[in-house]
Amino acid sequence: MFNIIVLGLVSLLTDISTEMVYPLLPLFLTARLGASPAIVGLIEGVAESLASLLKVFSGYFSDLWGRRKPLAILGYGSSTIGKIFLFLSTSWIWVLVGRIVDRFGKGIRTAPRDALIAESADPAQRGKAYGLHRTLDTLGAALGVLLAYFFLISYRGDYKVIFLYSLVPAALGVGLLSFVREKADTRARPGAKKLSLQWSALDRRLKAFLLVVLLFTLGNSSNQFLLLRAQNLGFGASTVLLLYLFYNLSYALVSYPAGHLSDRIGRKTLLVLGYLLYGLVYFGFALVNVAGTLWLLFGVYGLYIGFTEGVEKALVADIAPGHLRATVIGLHATLVGIGLLPASLVAGVLWNTFGPRAPFYFGGVMGVLAAIGLYLVVPGKQGQMLVGKSQG
């Protein structure tokens, strides 16, 4: 439990830093640097895809070396450096570089950190452990948005000052990692050398699950399009931050109970409900005419994240062989990441070509289809039969 709390606090500090910056980037890019929504989609698609593509390799080397902590430190440190490029930015190219370095760090740290959480928790309470981590992470996000709002008002829209201050909690988070204790049995795992990344070698039910997640990801563009939609409906920068804060509070409120509930009733029910909520809320973003309705939509969007993010991580940890846990966690994230670049690019092109409603109609359809697909392909109460014999 000690590791879970420390890693949760590290994520809290890192998300304070990240969310001081993230909700301001689409506004900074479009209003200050003259970038189009398509450029916003390009930046987020490239950065997030890089992060996901790195996760399988980070997970593999973590299993091969039997070490989690050094890769986690490297990842969190890289994310700190990425924010320096944002502070120095004079064009969208600088922002692209900063986001790539930041997301490189996320790609390096995620699989080893999630494996540490899984190995530090009772297997019967993994959902609760991931839920607690997501709650602390998201509370950090809420605090980060509050600080961004405060500094935006105090410094009259000077984005660069906020980018500079975001370095402080990021550096504190890296320092806090020194208190994490690796378990002795995570070291020298020879089985990692036997890993096969061939698609044909995966169990067919696991492949079906991953394809459904990929289908969902193709419609799951960057959250920055939600912020652009709010701006499109007349919200100013400070009010957009408050909307994003409300989303994070909703997310934080439900993450821990959802993870705990998934330990009792199974992962499948919450994941299907979460995907369905995503589809419905995206239709809402497409249809909304009254700006005030966005408060409800951002709140429901937080419920979707809370129902799915930690629970899906727990499901992947459940089905992963112990000696390859970080690798399988990373492989799942990498396969999901294949859809991130086209998702954000498609959203940007749809926005530019057909208007701001189009990417949300597309995302809504994909969310509903993914919910149906997940219901059909995930067997059993717990959804833990996906890998069949491969678990042994």
Structure description:
This protein has 392 residues and is mainly α. Helices cover 77% and strands 0% of the residues. It has helices at 2-21, 25-32, 37-65, 69-88, 92-120, 126-154, 159-165, 167-176, 204-218, 224-232, 237-265, 267-287, 294-319, 325-337, 340-354, 358-377. The protein has one domain: MFS general substrate transporter like domains (Growth Hormone, Chain: A), CATH 1.20.1250. The model is unreliable at 186-193 and 382-392 (pLDDT under 50).
CATH topology: Growth Hormone, Chain: A
End-to-end separation in angstroms reads 27 Å
Which segments are poorly predicted (pLDDT under 50) over 5 or more consecutive residues? 186-193, 382-392
Count of discrete structural domains: 1
Strand coverage percent: under 5%
* Gyration radius from CA atoms, angstroms: 20 Å
Mean pLDDT: 84
Instruction: State the secondary-structure class.
Output: mainly alpha
Q: Architecture in CATH?
A: Up-down Bundle
So what's the overall shape?
A: globular
Number-wise, the strands total 0
CATH class: Mainly Alpha
Largest sheet: none
Helix content: over 70%
Q: What is the H level of CATH, i.e. the homologous superfamily? A: MFS general substrate transporter like domains
Number of helices: 16
